[in-house]
Amino acid sequence: MPGEILSQSEIDALLSALSTGEMNPEELKREESERRVKVYDFKRALRFSKDQIRSITRIHENFARLLTTYFSAQLRTYVQITVGTADQVPYEEFIRSIPNMTILNVFEMPPLDGRIILEVNPNIAYAMLDRMLGGRGTGLNKIENLTEIETKIMSNMFEKAFEQARDAWANLVEVDPILTEFEVNPQFLQMFSPNETVVVISLNTQIGETSGMINICIPHVFLEPIIPKLSAHYWMQSTPKKERNIDEITYIQNNLKDTKLPIVAELGTTNIAIQEFLLLDIGDTIQLDKMIEQPIELKVEGVPKFYAQVGKVNKKQAVQILEEIKGGDRENE
């Protein structure tokens, strides 16, 4: 076999078998000839090379990381999304592989032509919906009974989530994801011919205790304009890894800056007996442990961070920060 090196003992054994008639040279040639013939299914045309599939996988590995960060912040629970598989199949095969009733989001991504399908397993979709509405993230499957409110919440949630594709594809092309259709029945999505080659990227998704799949279906016509960029040579010349990591760090930092923190200005504290508490009535006065001229503590997430004084701004109660409380963090408590 080409590229295979035999040891001296294997060569001796092969020559011995040929000389004794245990092996027939003609049969070996015939087997080698038959081995070179491969069955080709024209209905399952392979239009992408392995190198191009690997490039698409790299894009969606980055996309999966961005989705993990986004959903972790939005749902405030454990979220883990990773690329499972990436394969090219006929569109008909993709439609047969997904549930009869599921969550289907159709996106356009100008300036590229064509549309992308984001299919979300019902258990995952309902776990996300439950978390968005303040629940524990329980997965259900009652897609056929989606209410208008549930449909609106889900479509908005996945529309905003898919905006992360803008950053994931940035090294190849600047895209602008737009949700154009929301459907639950795959039979109503006859967007391509049954034999059209599509790339299906399956994302393993964990939302709290619920797990499932998110599938991204990309047709060949969508990728055709950027196929030359889907090569290892192009990726080697693209943005250095250090710069890509800086972009991810900047993205996370920007999201953290929008996080809301509760701030409490504590005027003072006191201790009273339960009996006194039960006897409290309108007009009673509770004496605190702070004098009126003393600065009060300003707490962030329950941690004392600043000293402040009470005042008014535009007829509204306010506090003015005087100084930072040294060691006012959880590590030094």
Polypeptide structure, described:
This protein has 333 residues and is of the alpha+beta class. The chain folds into two domains: 50-238, Chemotaxis protein chec; 260-277 and 288-322, Roll (Surface presentation of antigens (SPOA)). Helix content is 35%, strand content 24%. It contains eleven helices and ten strands. A hairpin with a 2-residue loop joins strand 5 (197-207) and strand 6.
Number of domains: 2
List the uncertain runs. none
Strand content: 15-25%
Radius of gyration over C-alpha positions, nearest whole angstrom: 31 Å
CATH class term of the largest domain: Alpha Beta
Compute the number of helices. Answer: 11
In whole angstroms, the N-to-C terminal distance is 70 Å
CATH-scheme architecture of the largest domain: 3-Layer(aba) Sandwich
Categorize the overall geometry: elongated
- Biggest β-sheet: count, sense, barrel? 6 strands, antiparallel
Structural category is alpha+beta
> On the 0-100 scale, what is the average pLDDT?
81
Number of strands: 10
Oligomeric state of shown chains: single chain
Task: Please give the order of strands in the largest beta sheet.
Answer: 1-5-6-3-2-4
CATH homologous superfamily label of the largest domain = CheC-like
User: In percent, how helical is the residue content?
Assistant: 25-40%
Which series of helices and strands comes N to C? HHHEHEEHHHEEEHHHEHEEE
User: Could you say what the CATH topology of the largest domain is called?
Assistant: Chemotaxis protein chec
